[in-house]
Amino acid sequence: MLLRLRVPLREFLKYLEHTMTENPNIINHTPEITFRTEKVIRLNAFPQGESGTIVDMTSDTELQGRLMGMGMFIGTQFKLLQGGLKSHKPLLLAIGETRIALGSEIAQTILVEK
Amino acid sequence: MNEHNEILVALVGQPNSGKSTVFNYLTGLHQTIANYPGVTVTKKSGHYHDDKRRIEVVDLPGTYSLTSYSQEERVTRDFLLLERPEVVVIVVDAANLRRHLYFVFQLLELQIPLVVCLNMMDIAERRGLEIDVQKLEQELGVPVIPAIARNNRHSKNEQTDKNFGLEKLRSTINEISQKHAHESPLVWKINYGKLEPLISEFDAALSEKPPLVQDFPSRWLAVKLLENDREARRIIQHHTHDADWEKLLENCTQKAKDYEKSEGDSPRKTIAAQRNNYAEKLEQKTIRRIMKPKRNSDMLDKILCHPLGGLLCVGLVMFGIFKLAFSVSDDWEWFPWISEEFGFQFTTPVSAVQSIFDNWIPMFLDFCFGLPEGDLRSLIYDGIVSGVGGVLVFMPTIFFIFLFMALLEQSGYVARVIVVMDRIMRFFGIHGQSILPLILGGGIIGGCAIPAVMATRTMREQRERILTIMIIPLMNCGAKIPVYALLISAFFVANKELVMAAIIFISWTLALISSLILGKTIVRGKSSPLIIELPTYQPPNFYDMLLSASLQSWWFVKKAGTIILAVNVFLWVLMYYPRLDDKSATASEQLANSYAAKIGRTFEPVSKYMGFDWRDNVALLGGFIAKEVIVSSLATMYGIESGDENITEENEISHADPINTPENVNYISENELYLEDIDYNNCRYLASNLDSEKDLSLSSIELDERSKRLAVHLRSEKSWTTLKAFVFILFVMVYAPCVATCAIIWRETGHIKYMLASAIYATTVAIIIALAVYQIGTLITTVL
Predict the structure, then answer these.
(1) CA nearest B273 in A: which residue?
(2) Helix (H) or strand (E) holding B533
(3) Residue A69 is nearest to which of B65, B301, B415, comparing CB atoms?
(4) Of B192, B224, B238, B538, whose CB has the highest number of CB atoms within 10 Å?
C-alpha cells in the first residue's frame, strides 16, 4: 500500500518541476492547481487545528464517490481536528456538523489549501 | 404482489441517519434477516399492518450515495429500480442536511415515489438550527416528515402523536401507496449547466427504446452514462444488443472526453459539484441558524481517538463489557430466594437454563412418557435434550453481550474504536472494525464464534468482513477453555498464568498471520482504506437495544440450535452404536467398540506423529461437533466413570494437586457421579459453567470433580507428557471451527466455499503446527 502511494508522489513532484520550468505548453492542459503550488499541500501535511479548503481529489473514482457522499467536494471547507503534519495517525476532519476520520493514505490523495 | 392487500416499502438512508431506529419502530419484532442472493449484503425486512393491509418494509443497506461502486450501493439501486417498491422512505439527518440532500437528489432522479423522513430534529435544534419543513417540501416536491425516531416511543402527547414523527410517516406511506403506481411521479431535475445539452441529447436517444425506459428513467441513465458509470453501461449492454447502442456508448465516451478537454473538468466532477451546489443552495433556503451550536464532543474525541489514550479506553470498555455480561448472566444472583429448596439451581439466568434442561425437561418427559431404558431414551435424553441444552446454556451470556454491543453501537462509540484500532489491524490486512467481532469470539478469553461472526454484519467492506469471519475461529472461545483448564491443571500447575497468557498470545499471532496469508490467497483484493463518519454521541434508546439483542439472540438460537441438534443426533449415533451384547459392559468399553472409535483408529497412523492415539482422536472428532465435548469425551475414553472406584484417587488429588486444597474439593452426590451410558453431553454443563464463571480470572482455573480425576489420570498415563499436553492445547486452539460456527460462516458469507476454506485452512494449520511442535519437542527431549 505504502509503496504504491509513494510512487505517484514522486511522479507528481517531478511533473510539477517539469511543468514549471521546461515545458510551459503543458500548463494549458493541467488543472489550475499547478499555479498554486506554494499554497496547495496534501491533507496529511496540513497543520492540526487549522481550517482549509479542499482543492482537488486525486484518488480513484470509487473513493472520490465515497468522499463526496460524506460531504467532501472540491471547494468544501474543513477544520482538521487531529492528525496531519505527516504523522501516520488517522485524521479527524470537521466538515460542517459532520466528523470524519480518514486514514493518512487517503489524506495523501486530497489536495488542500489554507 | 397483491396490490390491494400488500404494499412494499423500502427504507433507505445514509449510515447514522437513524434508519434502523425507524425500521425498528415500524416493524417491531416482525423482522427477518437474510442475504441478498449471491452477495454478502444482509437483507433486513419486516412488516406491519395498517388498514387491513400488510405493509412489507425492507431496510436497505446504509449507503452514502448511489454510485455503483460498492455491493451495498448496487443492491440498493437494483432493489429500487427492479422491485419497484410502492413507497421509498429516505431517512435524513436534519442536523447534516446538506450531505443528506445530496443523496436525496440521486433518489429523486430515479423518479421513484419518495417520502423524506427528516430525522433527528432534536439534535438539529440543539445545534441551533431551524428548518423550514414546508419550504423543503415545496422545493423537493415530495412529502417531508420531521421526526425524532429515537424518542418516538416516549412521546406522551397523544394529540401530536398522529401528526408528528413516525405515526405521520405511517399515514403518509398509506396515502402515497394508494395513489396509482402508474401515475408517473413528478420529473424532478437538477440543472447541470454546461452539461445539459449533452444530457438532453442522450436522454432523447435513450428514450427511444421502450424496454429500457420501462425499467430505468432515461434522463437518469443519460446522466449515469456521462458519469462514466460502469453499471449504467452494463445495463444498456444487457438490455440491448443492437450495434446502434455500441455506437451510442462510444459516442458518449467521446463526448465526455471532449467535454473534459474544453471545460477542464470531467462530467463526473461537474455533476457532483452541481448536485452539491444545489444542496448547498437548498440548505441556505430552508435552514436558519438561530443560535450558536453547542458541541462538546470534539473534546471527548480528542481523548477517545487518541492513539494511546483511545487504545486504553477500548481495552477498558471491552473488558468491562465482558466482565459485566458474564457477571449479569452467571455471577450475580438474580433470584437468591429461589434456592436449592426446590432442588434446582435457579439463581442466575445461566443456572436457570441449566436447571431447565438438566432437571425439568427430563422430569417432564419421565412424567409424560416414562420411557424405558434403551436406545430411544438415550437418544432423547443424551442426544437431543442435553445437546440443545448445551447450546442454550450460552444464551443468557450471549444476550447480554449483544445488549451491551447494541449500547456501544447506538452511543456512537464503535466508530471511535474503529479509528483507534485501525492503524494496528491495517498492518495485518484487516479493518479496525474487526476488533469487536474478534473479541466477541474469544479475543480476551471466553466468548463464542457464532455471535462474533454475526457481529461482522456491521462491517461495510466485504473483503475485510470475510477475512475477519475466517480468523474468528482461531480465538479462544468459551468452549475451548475447559480443555485448556484440564491440561494446564494436569501438566502446567507451576505456571498456569504464563501458559494461559502464552495461549492468548499464540492465538492472536496465528489469527493475524492467517489474516495476512488469507488476504493474499483466498480473500484477495485491495484493502479498503479508513473512511468513517464519527456519529454524534447519543444516549441509547433502551427499546432499540432490547429489540436488537432479543432478535439477534433469537436468530442465534434458531440458526445454531437446529444444526447443533441434527449434528448431536449424528454424533450420538456414532458413539452409541454398535452396542455390545454384554449388558455389563462399561461406558468406555462400549465406546471403544463404537463407530466413533473406528474412525479414531483410522486416523491413528497420521495422528501418532502428533502424539495422539485413537482415544484422543475420538475426543477431537467430537470437538469438531462442539468443542465442549472434548473434555467429557476424553473422560469417557480414559474410563473416568463412577465415584466408588475412585475414592482413593480423590484423596490423591488433594495431595498431588496444590491448587485443590481439601476445601475446594466439592463432594458431589453419587447421583451425579453415576454417568449414564455414554454421557458426552453431561459434562457440557460443567464445561460451560466452568468457562463462564472462571474464564476472566486466569488465576482461578478450577475444574469440576470429573475433570479433576481425569487430570490426575492423564498425569499418570504414560502416553501423556507435558509436550503432548501442549500440542493438544495448540491443536484444539486452531483446528476446524465447530459445526455451528461453520454453518454460521456459510450463512453469513453466502458461499459454501468460505466455510470449507475456513475449516480446511484451520485444520491444515493445526496439523502442521502439531506435527512441527511434537516432532521438534521430541527431538529436543531425546537429545537432552
Answers:
(1) A73
(2) strand B531-533
(3) B65
(4) B224
The shortest C-alpha distance from A76 to chain B (Å) reads 10
**Cβ-nearest to A62 among B69, B305, B422:** B69
Would you call A102 and B69 a contact, using CB atoms and an 8 Å cutoff? no
B457 SS3 class:
helix
**Which CATH superfamily includes the segment(s) A2-113?**
Ferrous iron transport protein A (FeoA) (2.30.30.90)
Give B737's contacts (C-beta < 8 A, 6+ positions apart). Answer: B449, B472, B473, B745, B758, B759, B762
Which of the four CATH numbers 1.10.287.1770, 3.40.50.2300, 3.40.50.10330, 3.40.50.300 does domain B193-289 have? 1.10.287.1770
Rounded to the nearest angstrom, the gap between the alpha carbon of residue B135 and the centroid of all alpha carbons in its chain is 42
Domain with CATH 1.10.287.1770 in chain B: 193-289
Q: Which residue in A60, A99, A104 has the most chain B C-beta atoms within 10 A of its own C-beta, making it the best mutation to test that interface? A: A99
Q: Where are the domains of chain A?
A: 2-113
Tell if the CB–CB gap between B531 and A101 is shorter than 8 Å: yes
Closest CA to B467 of B428, B521, B519, B531: B519
Give the residues across from B715 on adjacent strands.
none
The shortest C-alpha distance from A22 to chain B (Å) reads 22
Ranges of CATH 3.40.50.300 domains, chain B = 6-178
Q: How far is A31 from chain B (nearest CA, A)?
A: 6
The CATH H-level superfamily of B6-178 is P-loop containing nucleotide triphosphate hydrolases (3.40.50.300)
User: Looking at CA atoms only, how far is residue B233 from chain A in angstroms?
Assistant: 16
The predicted-structure confidence for A72-112, as pLDDT tens digits, reads as follows: 988 899 999 988 787 778 899 999 888 999 988 888 899 99
ipTM above 0.90, yes or no: no
Give the pLDDT confidence of B474-529 residue by residue, as tens digits: 998 877 877 888 888 888 877 777 888 888 889 999 999 999 999 888 877 777 78
Q: Other CB atoms closer than 10 Å to residue B261's CB: what's the count?
A: 9
Question: Three-state SS for B778?
Answer: helix
